[in-house]
Each structure stands twice: as C-alpha cells, then as structure tokens.
Amino acid sequence: xxxxxxxxxxxxxxxxxxxxxxxxxxxxxxxxxxxxxxxxxxxxxxxxxxxxxxxxxxxxxxxxxxxxxxxxxxxxxxxxxxxxxxxxxxxxxxxxxxxxxxxxxxxxxxxxxxxxxxxxxxxxxxxxxxxxxxxxxxxxxxxxxxxxxxxxxxxxxxxxxxxxxxxxxxxxxxxxxxxxxxxxxxxxxxxxxxxxxxxxxxxxx
Length: 205
Description:
By secondary structure, the protein is mainly alpha-helical. 75% of the residues lie in helices and 0% in strands.
C-alpha cells in the first residue's frame, strides 16, 4: 500500500506578501499617494507594513532612513526602492508613475480652485487644521515604530538618544540639515559600524 504523497510546502511568508505585478505596484502606490495629504509617513507605514505586509517594521525603518537622506521627496525615493527591489527598473518606474500620475492631476485642479479662495479666513483655518492633524499623524507613527528599534544594532536607547539629539539640533539650535546629517548621522554610522564589527569578531571567535 502506497503512502499518501506529502503536501506541497506552503510558500514562504516573504513570497506570499509581495507585489503581484508591476500593475499591482502602480495601483498600490497610486492609492497610497491619493491618501497622503500631509501625514504621508503614517499612510505609507500603514499601507506597506500593516495592510500589504510587503515589509516588516524593521525593514520599513531602514528603507525610510535611506529614502530621507537621498535627494527628493522621501516617499518617492521609497517607491523607487521598493519597485526596483521586486521588478528592477520597470518596477521602479511603475511605482514612481503610481506616486506621481494621479496626484499631479489632482494637485493642478486643487491649485486652480485654491487660487480663488486662498485669501479667505476659511481656507487659512483649514490649512492650519490640516497642519495640526499631519503633525499628530507623524508623531503617532513614530511612537508606533519605536518598538522596532529594539532589533537595531545600536540598541533602543542609543537610537532614542540620537533622535533626541537630532530634534535638539534642528528644532532648538537651528542647525542646517546638512550639518545634522553630517555630524549626527555620521556619528551614528560610525557607532553602528563599530557595534557590527564587534559582533562579527565575537561570532568568529
């Protein structure tokens, strides 16, 4: 009597949660871009990490950090990175097109409409209210992502200290962003390199 065949192995989690095609990339980033009024960090984190699960929180933090130091808008840089990771240059262009096509049309229409009401008290109040909401969304997302720093090579408290130092340098001391990236960012890179080097030597021992 023959034994029943073993069930086929289930696809890995990494393969199960990824863009299905370049069209999926385009539509996903179009929907993401149309939600990104102001607090785009919160929208990107919710869509890519929590809903689609294309990346973990740790991967999101690492990719977002790289996207921030590259020239251009953060979320545009991130879309290029994700599209290129899965489908190469065509994927990067598909994700970029999704980020820019529909929002460009919408922004042009809103700009024409806003030009006729820009000086009214209602429009000015609406802008201030949206600014406050966007700040709250970004703050809430930052707090939500703090737990992912526990797996960072530098450790949770070193990362929090670097974040506090960055805030003080920009918000309190008014340092230019280039100097903050050079001094604080460069110091963080050197420290991470030292920690990873120590771990590598300990692993070889």
